[in-house]
Amino acid sequence: MPCLIADSGPLIAFAKLGLLDLPTRLFGRVMMPATVFAECQAQAWLADAEAIRAAVDAGHLEVLADIDWPADMEAPRLDAGEMAVLSLAAHLGATVLMDERRGREVAQKLGLPVVGVCGLLLKANRLGGIGALAPLLERLHREGYFISPALTASVLAQAGEA
């Protein structure tokens, strides 16, 4: 079964939805570099951070040591978490879970498969693992997680909820 290397944003989004187990259900093995775990724990008192820490403690999410960016490649201008995700995913040949546009573009240039929160929600919906997407996307919007109106409309249309 393929593995998934997760960035902090999508993990926080799934924690907000109470669906932190969804990436694991769809991919089997979900990992994050230590830098991403630190980002997720920056405000450790928040429910999202507590849920992520509990998932790690229970073994549902794995934290791996960061892998340095390949010395023979020019480093893209991304934040430390995104760089760590892409380095680890390239090292393992894994799928990237990331919503940040520039990071997704770099992943694609590296030939890495990329999926985001909306893609995983849509996949789970199609497999019958979750119900309607509109309430989930609305909740993320209320929680301050940005998903463009065009992407929201596209996902809802693909799910037959337009």
Characterise this structure.
The longest helix is centred in the middle third of the chain and has 13 residues, at 80-92. The chain has nine helices and five strands. Strands 3-2-1-4-5 form a five-stranded parallel sheet. The protein has one domain (3-130): 3-Layer(aba) Sandwich (Rossmann fold), CATH 3.40.50.1010. 38% of the residues are buried. The mean pLDDT is 92. Helix content is 52%, strand content 10%.
How do you describe this structure in short?
The protein is α/β, with parallel strands linked by helices and 162 residues long.
Any key phrases for this structure?
single chain; 162 residues; alpha/beta; Rossmann fold; five-stranded parallel β-sheet; 52% helix
Secondary structure layout plus pairing:
Layout: E1 3-6, H1 8-17, H2 22-27, E2 29-33, H3 34-40, H4 47-57, E3 62-64, H5 80-92, E4 95-97, H6 101-109, E5 114-115, H7 117-126, H8 134-142, H9 149-158
Parallel strand pairs: 1-2, 1-4, 2-3, 4-5
Helix pairs in contact: 1-3, 1-4, 3-5
Instruction: Give the structural class.
Output: alpha/beta
By DSSP (H or I, 4+ residues per run), the number of helices equals 9
CATH architecture: 3-Layer(aba) Sandwich
Find the CATH superfamily: 5'-nuclease
CATH class categorisation: Alpha Beta
**What is the succession of H and E elements?**
EHHEHHEHEHEHHH
* Strand count: 5
Largest sheet: 5 strands, parallel
Number of domains: 1
Q: Measure the end-to-end span.
A: 33 Å
Helix content range of the residues, please? 40-55%
Outline the low-pLDDT stretches: none
The CATH topology comes to: Rossmann fold
What's the mean pLDDT score? 92
Shape: globular
Radius of gyration, whole Å: 15 Å
Strand order, sheet with most strands = 3-2-1-4-5
Q: How large a portion of the residues is in β-strands, by DSSP E?
A: 5-15%
